[in-house]
């Protein structure tokens, strides 16, 4: 934080009323998450109310930890905690923003802020790297750009920082004014305008206007003048003196020309005063070229010389800068953060690690933090973080990092270079460990990750955990805060990987999990998942497992009830169960004619506790079945009421699946059962734009071949190229779950942003695509589906549903998880 602040000042800034003020206590840290507290007595805990949880629930626990200052909603009951300093405000999120606004106002060096639909994080990181060669740069960690993320980023600015680069992101109308008020950027960058998150806005134009309002007080605004709507809007809103447009045509402040060459591209920028600068950049794709142009223009505007910009670019790669969780060697888990170069990023990685299920040892592999500023202060904080997260083993690479040796003489091993580290570690010595690998780009820690990750073939399914959280929170907005959520993680969590998904939703605050078979539940329990688990199809043979692992079977017939009840009697135990009522699905479930028998069974078997009663809608996703769904709901109400007459307690009542939540929110009862929607597919078509794709299936090009006219491709000679052309062989086949029905042009993949259609039949482990006219090389990535290829469209193409595509992905495909 830029400046320490007293409790009284906090109350004044946030217009709060203060209880038990201590004059001499200064706050230097602000936390919204109870797990991230380093110096309890110097921390102000801000109790936010979110979809996940109410921060106020953690106050007692934090007080025990030694936290002394709290910012709470005015309705917080202080009687329970008589000695704490409580600052009461009408809205804690707003108060957090006001504190950020205050800290921002103290920072007199340049603040750059980036808005736009795509590329914000990349532009921020690249600009940060180029400026970071000379200056102490503060930047928002990862993509902290929201109503809460921006204030937290501001608190990351310290007094030694010379420039700050912060992102601003909004998802609905009205949000930018709060961010503008905090950020007050001196220099603005508008990356571009896309259609993402359109749902929260009236029109594309209103979205654009809102985003641009961030720059109302900026001295300069950098943008690409080739985007017509953007450039028109900007010229009409801002005085011409502050505009720094760049364009591939002449007439703006910078005119750009691009020449692609074998090493990337040469980018020539001519300024309006006719001075010309040439840069060699290591990319050729349109998006990266756009991003780097924003970065160069911004660096020039901030007074950087062309030479030093070029030097910075030489160290950039179009890297994967996400924080990623990967399966590691011998059942270890790897957190890959090889693009991290500052303390703020390290904290995000540690927090992410803290949320994962426990492993045998915690191991940290860390390089020098190539961050300008005060090294003592920085490494002092690193040491405290290491203590807090209780690492068992530390590997340090670089020079400065050796200062950790005296602090951790037992666990620290230092190396002068990454090569030395690689020579000395034996990957086989790791087993069932949690390994966090975090280092600055120049240390090339990719090699370390390579060595320690589980080796599987080139196809991966990447799961975006932020998108998962986004989708979960979206469904929470459709239901009442009191309604519980059961997340269906059957079938390997719809292909996404049951363990990691279950772990993530457990941290997000879901109430229940649903699996298809007992084995799935046992696997979750063995890895430390604590949420209650309902088993849809528990077989009689697995009652022992259910009892041992605390799994709750669904009971769907009088016979099943009887055998479960007598199993409990024989084993002197009780069990919690769920009753499935058949109202039209005709799969499993009690019918009306079974109810009398069921009531008697319930009454005579108190060892069987009814945890819930539910039914399942057969056509909630289709408007034509609306009447039928309503009749199902009516039968359900009658039937469950009849069962309730023999119960002296209240089991949970639930009906709605994802489509049901969207179509019949008025029938949410006590709980909903969320499945496909969480995984990014909105089957009713009502809220399609509100969800984010969570998974991307990717593979790589193994080989490229030029074919003569008339040659054929693959089995049965089904692929033909009448006039010859170029094909690429991909490392994915039907055994990976890439459906054979995509053969012969039914399916396509994206390679460097371009469509390449399947040619010939899909083989077991490979398939071929037509890449004639596309610029590709062996080793390039091919996207099977993801943000830009919708699962629905793919499913339609071969006459199936997204559920099948998701669940078909073989377990041999490596799953990696990341935060974007
Ligand atoms: C799979 C399943 C769900 C979830 O359905 P979605 O359409 O994926 O939301 C809900 N309830 C039951 C009983 C299920 O089997």
Outline of the structure:
This protein folds into five domains: 5-91, MurE/MurF, N-terminal domain (Udp-n-acetylmuramoylalanyl-d-glutamate--2,6- Diaminopimelate Ligase, Chain: A, domain 1), CATH 3.40.1390.10; 107-314, UDP-N-acetylmuramoyl-L-alanine:D-glutamate ligase; 325-458, Protein-Tyrosine Phosphatase, Chain A (Alpha-Beta Complex); 464-686, Alpha-Beta Barrel (TIM Barrel); 695-818, Lyase, Ornithine Decarboxylase, Chain A, domain 1. Helices cover 31% and strands 24% of the residues. The model has no long low-confidence stretch (mean pLDDT 92).
Describe the protein in words:
The chain has 820 residues and is of the alpha/beta class. It folds into five domains: 5-91, 3-Layer(aba) Sandwich (Udp-n-acetylmuramoylalanyl-d-glutamate--2,6- Diaminopimelate Ligase, Chain: A, domain 1); 107-314, Mur-like, catalytic domain (UDP-N-acetylmuramoyl-L-alanine:D-glutamate ligase, 3-Layer(aba) Sandwich); 325-458, Alpha-Beta Complex (Protein-Tyrosine Phosphatase, Chain A), CATH 3.90.190; 464-686, TIM Barrel (Alpha-Beta Barrel), CATH 3.20.20; 695-818, Lyase, Ornithine Decarboxylase, Chain A, domain 1, CATH 2.40.37. 31% of the residues lie in helices and 24% in strands. It is built from 26 helices and 40 strands. It is globular, with a radius of gyration of 29 Å. It starts with a strand and ends with a strand. The model has no long low-confidence stretch (mean pLDDT 92). It binds pyridoxal-5'-phosphate (PLP). Residues 488, 536, 616, 657-659, 673-677 line the site of pyridoxal-5'-phosphate.
């Amino acid at each position: 934080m830029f400046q320490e602040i007293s409790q009284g000042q906090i109350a004044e800034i946030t217009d709060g009323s203060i209880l038990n003020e201590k004059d001499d206590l200064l706050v230097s840290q602000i936390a919204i998450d109870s797990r991230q507290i380093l110096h309890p007595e110097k921390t102000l805990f801000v109790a936010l109310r979110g979809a996940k949880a109410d921060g106020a629930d953690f106050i007692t626990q934090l007080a025990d930890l030694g936290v002394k200052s709290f910012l709470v909603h005015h309705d917080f009951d202080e009687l329970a905690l008589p000695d704490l300093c409580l600052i009461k405000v009408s809205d804690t999120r707003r108060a957090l923003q006001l504190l950020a606004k205050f800290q921002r106002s103290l920072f007199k060096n340049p603040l750059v802020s980036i808005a736009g639909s795509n590329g914000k994080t990349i532009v921020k990181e690249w600009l940060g790297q180029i400026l970071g060669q000379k200056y102490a740069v503060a930047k928002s960690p990862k993509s902290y750009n929201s109503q809460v993320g921006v204030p937290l980023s501001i608190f990351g600015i310290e007094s030694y920082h010379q420039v700050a680069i912060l992102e601003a992101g909004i998802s609905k109308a009205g949000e930018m004014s709060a961010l503008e008020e905090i950020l007050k950027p001196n220099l603005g960058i508008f990356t571009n305008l896309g259609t993402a998150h359109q749902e929260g806005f009236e029109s594309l134009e209103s979205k654009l206007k809102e985003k641009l309002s961030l720059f109302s007080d900026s001295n300069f605004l950098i943008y690409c003048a080739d985007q017509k709507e953007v450039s028109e809007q900007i010229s009409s809103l801002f005085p011409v003196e502050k505009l720094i447009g760049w364009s591939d045509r002449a007439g703006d402040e910078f005119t750009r020309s691009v020449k692609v060459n074998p090493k990337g591209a040469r980018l020539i920028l001519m300024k309006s005063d006719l001075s010309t600068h040439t840069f060699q950049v290591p990319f050729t794709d349109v998006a990266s070229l756009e991003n780097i142009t924003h970065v160069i223009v911004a660096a020039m505007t901030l007074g950087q010389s062309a030479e030093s910009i070029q030097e910075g670019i030489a160290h950039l790669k179009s890297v994967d800068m996400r924080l990623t969780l990967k399966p590691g060697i011998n059942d270890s888990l790897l957190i890959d953060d090889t693009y991290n170069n500052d303390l703020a990023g390290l904290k995000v990685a540690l927090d992410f690690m803290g949320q994962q299920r426990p492993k045998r040892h915690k191991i940290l592999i860390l390089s020098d933090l190539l961050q300008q500023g005060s090294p003592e202060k920085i490494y002092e904080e690193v040491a405290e973080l290491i203590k807090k997260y209780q690492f068992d083993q530390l590997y340090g690479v670089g020079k400065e990092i050796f200062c950790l040796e005296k602090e951790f003489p037992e666990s620290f091993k230092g190396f002068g270079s990454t090569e030395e580290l690689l020579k000395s570690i034996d990957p086989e010595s790791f087993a069932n460990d949690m390994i966090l690998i975090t280092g600055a780009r120049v240390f090339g820690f990719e090699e370390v990750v390579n060595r320690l990750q589980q080796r599987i073939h080139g196809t991966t399914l990447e799961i975006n955990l932020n998108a998962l959280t986004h989708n979960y929170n979206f469904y929470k907005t459709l239901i009442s805060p009191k309604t519980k959520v059961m997340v269906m993680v059957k079938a390997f969590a719809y292909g996404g990987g049951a363990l990691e998904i279950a772990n993530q939703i457990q941290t997000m605050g879901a109430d229940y999990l649903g699996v298809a078979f007992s084995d799935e539940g046992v696997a979750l329990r063995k890895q430390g998942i604590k949420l209650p688990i309902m088993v849809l199809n528990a077989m009689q043979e697995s009652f022992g497992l259910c009892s041992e692992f605390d799994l709750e079977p669904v009971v769907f017939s009088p016979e099943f009830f009887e055998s479960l009840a007598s199993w409990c009697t024989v084993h002197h135990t009780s069990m919690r169960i769920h009753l499935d009522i058949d109202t039209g699905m005709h799969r499993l479930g009690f019918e009306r004619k079974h109810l009398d028998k069921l009531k008697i069974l319930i009454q005579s078997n108190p060892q069987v506790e009814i945890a819930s009663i539910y039914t399942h809608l057969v056509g909630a996703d289709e408007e034509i079945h609306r009447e039928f769904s309503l009749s199902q709901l009516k039968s359900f109400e009658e039937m469950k009421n009849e069962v309730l007459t023999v119960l002296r307690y209240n089991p949970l009542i639930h009906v709605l699946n994802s489509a049901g939540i969207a179509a019949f929110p008025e029938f949410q009862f006590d709980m909903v059962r969320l499945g496909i929607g969480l995984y990014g597919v909105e089957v009713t078509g009502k809220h399609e734009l509100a969800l984010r794709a969570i998974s991307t299936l990717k593979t790589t090009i193994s080989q490229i071949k030029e074919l003569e006219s008339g040659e054929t491709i693959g089995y049965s000679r089904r692929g033909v190229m009448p006039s010859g052309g170029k094909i690429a062989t991909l490392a994915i086949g039907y055994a990976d779950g890439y459906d054979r029905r995509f053969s012969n042009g039914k399916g396509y993949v994206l390679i460097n942003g371009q469509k390449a259609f399947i040619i010939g039949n899909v083989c077991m482990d490979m398939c071929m695509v037509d890449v004639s006219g596309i610029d590709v090389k062996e080793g390039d990535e091919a996207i099977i589906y993801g943000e830009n290829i919708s699962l629905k469209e793919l499913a339609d193409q071969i006459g199936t549903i997204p559920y099948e595509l998701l669940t078909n992905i073989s377990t041999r495909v490596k799953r990696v998880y990341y935060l974007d």
